[in-house]
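Reminder: ligand-aware prediction takes two inputs, not one.
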Amino acid sequence: MKSANNTMTYQVYLVGGAVRDALLGLDVVDRDWVVTGAIPEQLEQQGYQQVGKQFPVFLHPVSKEEYALARREKKQGQGYTGFICDFSPSISLEEDLERRDLTINAIAQAENGELIDPFHGQQDIANKCLRHVSDAFVEDPLRVLRVARFAARFKEFNFHIAAETMRLMQTISTSGELASLSPERVWRELEKALATSHPLTFFHVLIEAKAMSYLFTELVWPKPPVSETQLLALDKAQRWAMICQHTPLEQLNRLQNALRCPNQYKNLAQQVRSFIEQHAIGMTAEAWQAWLMSVSAIKKPQAFDKLVQVLSLITSTQAKDWQALRLAIAKLNATDLIKQGFSGAELGEALRKERIKALQVLDSPLLKN
Ligand code: CTP
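Here is what comes back for the chain with cytidine-5'-triphosphate:
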């Protein structure tokens, strides 16, 4: 490709996940590009907008896809920011591919469709192998999580992790470098893993890589294990709540705060665990009333739906029986009580009693007889 002023030519290659996923026959969602032989000014002149701070990444003026100048990286010091980065136009495509994590992510495709695959990623795709590209793998601790996530995502294709790659992951874990990862980056990988068809594989790989105690110190791993088939019927937040069900509340709060989990995840996991710790099937109508109000069953029917789906799995009960409890109290309304002269705190108390009565007359397997 020619630059705007025709002084220098540069080449553009499709790289990373887009090439990998196409070779696996999967839909390609994001496309990342690498540009060799260019300087930032050339791309800017053509209307690309620079977005990367640590290294030059540009957004295409029309497609808004990411174009990165080919670069070489060398780790210096701790953490994600401790890299020296060389993105001069002399950096070759092979050099750029060599700094990448896995061979299956280090295949490039030229504009004419030709594949450039110096690290035999296609062979590893054929052999269903997640293998590191070079020893530089250990320079980025996030890769422990990435490999675990790819193992979860590609489990359906029967991918395994190369023994040497697993050893490098263990080396990263025991080096303590995982502590340098920001909570946001850890959460992003975890959330993506929860969306795969084998979310438990993500954790199993992290256990084998000795990373769990560094990443999720507080998490009490469920024993007996959660059923993956059950997880598949649930959304990401519900899956997380299932995985956290054995973690005591205080620990769970610390874990979720440390990970900066979004509220939707946090609340559901807390509600599930606090039911397990503080309530039980067969409670009195009074206790059910208090619980239903504490989880805003009437005001937040959708969140309640999600909660009871999880709790019914954990307690081997039927979601419809939990829904019946909600319906019994949701259909009561305050108008009659107001007509009878109730107001303020007295109205609240009268309503509470009405709700308890409505629950008492229910023929429910969840209620104490
Ligand atoms: N990459 C890497 N090390 C990282 C992050 C990214 O080597 N810690 C490289 C890999 O070559 C990866 C590419 O950058 O394929 C793009 O990264 P990203 O978009 O995060 O992941 P994808 O591999 O595209 O996978 P997906 O989008 O499915 O998560």
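The two ends are 79 Å apart (CA to CA). The chain has a mean pLDDT of 93. We will return to this case in the review session.
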